[in-house]
Amino acid sequence: MDNRPEWGKGCSRGCLLPQRVVVAIMSFLAIICAYTHRVSISHVITKLVVPINRTNDDVDKEDVCPVDEDTSTETPLNKGDYDWSEQMQGYILGSFYLGYLISQLPGGVLADKYGAKWVLSACLLLSGLCTMCLPLAIHVGEEWGLIVMRVFTGLAQGPLFPGLTALLSSWVPSHERGRLCAFAFSGVTIGTVVSNLSSGLMLHYFHWSVTFVVFGLTGPVWFIIFFFLCTSRPDQHPCIKPEELSYLTEALGERSQGKSPLPWKELLLSVPLLALVISQIGHDWGYYVMITCLPKYIANVIRFSIRSNGFVTALPFLAMFVCTNLAGLLADYIIKSGKMSITNERKLYTFISAFGPGAFTVLASYAGCNKILVIGLFTFAMFLMGFYYSGQKLTPMDMSPSYAGTLMAICNGLGSLAGLASPPVVGYLTPNATMNEWRVVFWLGFVIFIISAIVFAIIGTAEVQPYDPAYTGEKKKRINL
User: Fold this and answer.
1) 206-258: pLDDT as tens digits
2) Backbone dihedral region of 368: left (phi > 0), alpha (psi from -120 to 50 degrees) or beta?
3) What is the pLDDT of residues 355-392, one digit of tens each?
4) Is the pTM of this model over 0.90?
5) I want to staple 324 with a disulfide (CB 3.0 to 4.6 A). Which of 11, 39, 87, 186 is the partner?
6) Coil, strand or helix: which one is 7?
7) Burial code of 312-341, b = ≥16 C-beta within 10 A, e = fewer?
8) How far is CA 381 from each of CA 315, 355, 386, 439, 456, rounded to the nearest angstrom?
9) Cα(364)–Cα(376) distance, rounded to whole angstroms?
10) Nearest-angstrom CA–CA distance, 309 and 125
């Protein structure tokens, strides 16, 4: 039965792409925008602060590398005005995750109960506006103004992944999630690539404030496009083709949004949810160290120029993007062909995405000042992390399609504790920003990676949980895989 609004039933012939593909593309672009808002500070802060005076440092010369010759050609607009310690910089970089943690669960519950469209719309719009206000916040309040505005940016972005998980759960059947959902989530890596490349170039040629304004504008632009192209569920879309609506209704089942109360007791006492949370914290620790602190490592230890920094820190995330999409295609093939169950595929991918990055970042810290080898090892580490998005990241949709946003909010929200803690911890461990100090950071990340992956392998699952309402279409589709 066609439940779409009457005014939209005549427009389906004009659709060029299936609507679930459009939803996946807009989700991909949403994450790109959000990550440019989130990550750009990691580059800008290297130009906000007064450079470390290495001539007065009582450190081994082998602990830092020679300065990149390209540094001498940088614009005089960005020579550093703020004398912030490494630990204060850690607090600034971690402050985003304080707000991010607070708004995760409310965002996920609202997305599951009332639909993801408006949750996501508000998320990107407010995040963009907060990013555009950062130069003013720094001018007025210096480090504390920056911290406050970054907390607000985190509050705006907290509902992002819970909202996207609820949206994709309502649009994408389980046997297509490896392709479409992994592609959508790979916006994380492309957003980081775009931020790293563009930040490096903009900081080289323009005042640092330009970076925040340009990236901030992407939020309102995405908001306008998303408003006209997407809806929370297929049966609400005015232009979806009847064939696609029929297919999605059969594959996903009729979902009565907002009528059944959340089964909080069963959900919070779930052992598989505990595995999700631990795995998320482990992954987020390693990933947040890379996206937040890698530019500082490259600038202060390997000592590339800011323009080169942008290029070389983009390479690992570009590799991760390629792996994410190749791994997604392979995951769908493995599951559909019956070569591996969904649970085993998710566990295998999660372990690869933990052991590989942990091991190769440690190796990179022993590569000394061989810049090509260092970047090569970081790149291979992040390539292997690409398996994560067809592993643990899809498990909330597998475990509970109807409460996927809430599950994602719980595990992603608690995972953001790693984002809140890791920059200050890195700042504490690297007061002189030397290679030996950073080596401790990477060893710590390796241990956290491995422990979290082992826990997920032992008690994690991708099976639909008993507290989830029965969706005959979804279950039928799984049986037929």
Assistant:
1) 888 999 999 999 999 999 999 999 888 888 888 888 888 888 888 776 554 54
2) left
3) 999 999 999 889 888 888 988 998 999 899 989 988 88
4) no
5) 186
6) helix
7) bbbbbbbbbbebbbebbebbbebbeeeeee
8) 11, 9, 9, 15, 20
9) 8
10) 29
